[in-house]
Amino acid sequence: MTARRIVVLGRQGAGKGTQCARLVEEFGIVHVSTGDMLRAAVAAGTELGKQAEAVMQAGELVGDELMLGIVSERLAQDDIMENGVLLDGYPRNAAQADSLEAILAEQGVELTAAINIDVPLEEVTQRMMARGREDDTPESIARRLELYEEQTAPLLEWFASRDKLVVVDGLGEEDEVFARVSGAL
Ligand code: AMP
Fold first, then answer.
1. Of 18, 74, 153, 171, which one has the greatest count of Cβ atoms within 10 A?
2. pTM here?
3. 110 CA distance to ligand 1 centroid (A)?
4. 127 assigned to active site
5. What's the pLDDT score for residue 1?
6. What is the residue range of 13's domain?
C-alpha cells in the first residue's frame, strides 16, 4: 500500500493526540504534531523555540513561514516517505492549506484524506480546562478555540471541495472513537 498522508482536524481537546497515538500503533503511520514539535523546541531552547514561546503562551498562531519551513522539512524525511504521516495541528489556516498542497505536489504525492474528529465547543472547553497543559491558561484556551472557529474550521469546506473530508463523531469512549476513526481509514 502506498504511504498515506492524512490530515487530522478537530478542535483543541477533541482527542487528536490520543487517536493519533492509537493509529500509530495500529497502522505504523508516523505522527507529526506541529504543537509537539514546537513544545520540544521551546523546551530545548532552540532559536525556533525562542521565536515561538510567547506566541504559544498567548494561544496565537506561529507565523506561516516558520511553520512551512518546519513542516516541509519534516515531510521530506524517509520515515514518512515510507510509512506515511498523520499531520496533527497543520494546516491551521488557508495559507497553510495552500502550502501543504504545494509541498505534496512537489513531492509528487497526494493527500489521502482529512479526518475531522468532531467534538462540540462546550465539551472541548471543559476537557481543556481539565487537561492543565503548560500553555493552557483560560485566556489561551479561549483564544485558541476562537482562532480555530475563525481560521481552521473553514478548512473543512476546503477539504470537502477536494473530496478529501471525512467527519468522525469524537464523542464517547476512546475505544468507540478509535473504531470510527480507523473504520474511516
Ligand atoms: P497544538 O498542540 O496543536 O494545540 O499547538 C499548540 C500551539 O502551537 C498553538 O496554540 C500555536 O501557538 C502553535 N502551533 C501549532 N501548530 C501550529 C500551526 N500549524 N500554525 C501556527 N501555530 C501552530
1. 74
2. 0.95
3. 24
4. yes
5. 61
6. 4-184
Q: Ligand 1 pocket by C-beta < 6 Å: which residues?
A: 12, 34-35, 38, 55-56, 59-62, 67, 89-90, 92, 96, 144
Contact predicate 84/30, CB 8 Å: yes
Q: Give whole-number Cα distances, 29 to 7, 41, 97, 147, 182, in Å.
A: 12, 23, 21, 28, 12
Q: Which of 4, 16, 74, 180 is catalytic?
A: 16
Q: Could you confirm whether 162 is annotated as catalytic?
A: no
Question: Number of structural domains, the chain?
Answer: 1
Q: What is the CATH number of the domain that holds 138?
A: 3.40.50.300
**Residue in 72, 118, 81, 88 with CA at minimum distance from that of residue 23:** 88
CA separation for the pair 134, 3 (Å, rounded): 34
pLDDT band at 129 (very low <50, low <70, confident <90, very high): confident
Residue 5 CB neighbours (<10 A):
22
pLDDT at 15: 96
CA 52-53-58 angle, to 5 degrees, is 100
d(CA 131, CA 13): 8
pLDDT tens figures, 54-71: 999 999 999 999 999 999
